[in-house]
Design brief:
heterodimer; A: 306 residues; alpha/beta; eight-stranded mixed sheet; 12 strands; 23% strand; B: mainly alpha; MetI-like fold; 79% helix
Chain lengths: 306, 327
């Protein structure tokens, strides 16, 4: 049985359809990458799964964690679902000490808090954890802060860790360290990992399976290896072509193949395939009829032409 | 705040205070010189007259026959020794007069600030929790009304309702006259007298702080670290106070320093309304008696009070926000 099972999850902000009928599952111990450009609904999906959307959002569909449909997330904050955020700079409260923030929700006796906090900071590879317990966020570098963010998540003893663009705000070298840490924690603690990113390099290094979102719709769901070798959806193909080729000299701007056009407006979303307006294979049917996901080998693709 | 930072904040404040006080001292000296006549004229007028020879003798005795730079140096040197001059109206040194009245004013200012900050925080959080809701609109409207009411009028109305009609509080005064109360009974008596003046002075500031607090709460509520707190399972009440209100409080505390001068000005008015023997009353009486020396002493004292309040506020801000000293 899957650890996380999402069925027909839709999120609206007023008239805007931010996420449209997303269905997917994450197995225990699996890493699923949720990729897409800004505005594709990937962060919205992550926040919906973590139960952290604002009150303005209208959510329909079901999210099952460990077989239980989630309506109230209080039960899964400890021992269930934890989340690491994109901007570690602002994700920590500036006026509280690091240690206090790590163990804040644990209801530990005061005497045990420092030791517990230091232990979690040590787990995420922070040096001198006993001293860092008393530090404030502004005294730490960006990479250290992101490690603290991960320590806060680890302190919840989660089974599913959602990482929403955990490396976007960091230097490239620090990015690699944070990804290595996530992989390490995943192996050590037996976590499932939902990795939200727009960075296909991160996906290739980390993910078992990849879900490609576009304009709130799931376009392709494939094992990572299959996605990179034989992408089926025209959007996925476009994404892969838009990457600088690996191992070559820094490419000239002209050598990068871009996907023409931009995301459609989603208030309301267009009829038919969301990608039709930017797709060179789009025809009459694409513009009228929204494609449903269908299996091709071990991949699911939402395209009439794939 | 780390131990060494306390000294750092105080030192930085004092370094700013010296030039400010110097400017105020120069201004008071200038006013003293620009005013028609001098101390000897006042002395002779209040003493019932005297001839030109007496005036010349006195001027020599007080150093008023010297050129003004020498007089200025003399004046500044006396200030350094905390000598604010001599009031011939009261026949006492000005510093004694001020020193005697200072506790009354400081007590009024402190209690009004505590009242205003306390209610400002509670009302601001209450309003900011649901921006646009009925509670928010009600509190903002009441705040606006409080802001629009002049404090002397509020004071008079409070006297009329709570002292005259309901007889719950005394009409005025600092404590019950000739009551020989001591210890805790005297403290309670003073507190009982302080209620109406405190409220009258504080209401204006309640509206200032509640608006600031509300704006802070609304802004901080959408901060990323609040989402982090929700993600880790912190309860709603703790999120509101330990994360949202705790951060929204910082500009409110900083504002207390900015408002220090307004607070002092308000205290002068309220002391007159409630016949409290504070600095405000002293200033009022000195104006009526044309006691320029006392007024200038009060001017300097006011500057010192405002600087002192700001120093305290700086220390509180540094204690509340670990980023301040680092900056």
């Amino acid at each position: 049985m899957s650890l996380l099972q999402i069925d027909q999850l839709s999120v609206r902000f007023g008239a805007t359809m931010a996420l449209d009928s997303l269905s997917l599952a994450i197995a225990a111990g699996e890493t699923l990458a949720l990729v897409g450009e800004s505005g594709s609904g990937k962060s919205t999906a992550a926040l919906a799964i973590a139960g952290l959307l604002s009150h303005q959002a209208t959510v329909t569909g079901t999210i099952r964690f460990d077989g239980q449909a989630l309506t109230d997330w209080r039960g899964v904050r400890q021992g269930g679902i934890a989340m690491v955020f994109q901007d570690a700079m602002s994700a920590l409260n500036p006026v509280h000490r690091i240690g206090a923030q790590v163990v804040e929700a644990l209801r530990l006796p005061r005497a045990e808090q420092r030791v517990a906090a230091a232990r979690f900071l040590d787990q995420v590879g922070l040096p001198q954890p006993e001293r860092l317990v008393d530090a404030y966020p502004h005294e730490l570098s960006g990479g250290m802060r992101q490690r603290v963010g991960i320590a806060i998540a680890v302190a919840q003893n989660p089974r599913l860790l959602i990482a929403d663009e955990p490396t976007t705000a960091l230097d490239v070298t620090i990015q690699a360290q944070i990804l290595a840490l996530l992989r390490d924690l995943k192996a050590r603690l037996g976590l499932s990992l939902l990795l939200v990113t727009h960075d296909l390099g991160v996906v290739a290094e980390t993910a078992d399976r990849v879900a490609v979102l576009y304009a709130g719709c799931l376009m392709e769901l494939a094992p990572a290896a299959a996605l990179f070798t034989s992408p089926h959806h025209p959007y996925t193909q476009g994404l892969l072509e838009a990457r600088p080729p690996f191992g070559t000299q820094a490419p000239m701007l002209a050598e990068l193949v871009e996907i023409p056009g931009q995301l459609p407006r989603l208030d309301p979303p267009p009829a038919g395939c969301r990608f039709a307006a930017r797709c060179d294979r789009a025809d009459q049917r694409c513009r009228a009829e929204q494609p449903v996901l269908r299996p091709i080998a071990d991949t699911l693709v939402a395209c009439h032409h794939a | 705040m780390k131990p060494g930072q306390l000294g750092q904040v105080v030192r930085r404040r004092l370094a700013h205070a010296v030039p400010v006080l110097l400017v105020v001292a120069l201004a008071t000296f200038g006013l003293l010189k620009l005013a028609p006549g001098d101390a000897v004229d006042v002395l002779i007028a209040t003493g019932g007259g005297g001839d030109a020879a007496l005036a010349a003798d006195l001027r020599r005795a007080y150093g008023l026959d010297q050129p003004w730079p020498a007089q200025l140096a003399h004046y500044l040197w006396r200030l350094v020794q905390l000598d604010l001059g001599y009031s011939f109206v009261h026949n006492r040194p000005v510093s004694h007069l001020i020193w005697e009245r200072l506790p009354v004013s400081l007590l009024l200012m402190a209690s009004a600030t505590a009242f205003a900050v306390g209610f400002g925080i509670v009302l601001g959080v209450s309003a900011g929790q649901t921006p646009g809701g009925w509670r928010d609109r009600l509190i903002l409207s009441v705040g606006l009304v409080l802001y629009a009411m002049p404090s002397f009028w509020v004071g008079l109305m409070l006297i009329l309702i709570f002292a005259v009609k309901l007889a719950l509080f005394p009409v005025g005064g600092f404590e019950t006259a000739a009551s020989d109360l001591t210890g805790i009974a005297r403290v309670l008596d003073i507190a009982w007298h302080a209620v109406l003046p405190t409220v009258a002075l504080a209401l204006l500031f309640v509206s200032v702080y509640l608006r600031l607090m509300r704006a802070g709460v609304v802004e901080v509520a959408s901060a990323d670290f609040v989402r982090t707190a929700r993600a880790k399972g912190v309860g709603a009440t703790r999120i509101l106070w330990a994360h949202v209100a705790r951060n929204a409080l910082l500009p409110v505390v900083a504002m207390v320093g900015v408002q220090a001068a307004t607070l002092l000005g308000g205290a002068v008015v309220i002391e007159s309304v409630f016949s409290l023997p504070g600095l405000g009353r002293l200033a009022y009486d000195s104006v009526l008696a044309r006691d320029l020396v006392v007024l200038l002493g009060l001017l300097l004292t006011s500057a010192v009070i405002v600087i002192a309040i700001n120093t305290v506020v700086d220390l509180v801000v540094a204690a509340l926000d670990p980023r301040v000293v680092a900056r």
